[in-house]
């Protein structure tokens, strides 16, 4: 009887630990099947992909941080277990709240929101120095951001979003290449 009680206590303890410590992980992007939850466009396995997982385990992927923000506006944030962005330089997944962001409406992003993600402030500052434009932001700053798409960038992308295939995402990041 004592053995059964010990096993029962251990099992209950493990269940409690599992329930309290749910770990969320970013999932890989599969360009063959992943479609942005908001704009319904193909998600490239690049530095602009973002995703979130709800507390009930549902994963939503986006081709641009602006699309993820739109999902949050439509669905709220209270049920988000974790949200992720990718580092611009090495595509490593970063927790949304830990990333540093650079914004300028002339920066080319898939849906023309002009926000690029970095794992640290130093990398973001180097990007601004290289591009000649940009403003450093944190997750708290994005909460008050106006989230408008750049009309000039959308026109350059035929109004449909997504950079053309011949436009490499790490070159000519700004509308005016003299910023480089």
UniProtKB/TrEMBL annotation:
InterPro entries, per the entry: N2O_reductase_NosL
Signal peptide residue numbers: 1-25
Keywords: Signal
A matching Pfam family: NosL
Disordered as annotated region, ranges: 161-180
Name listed for the protein in its UniProt record: Copper chaperone NosL
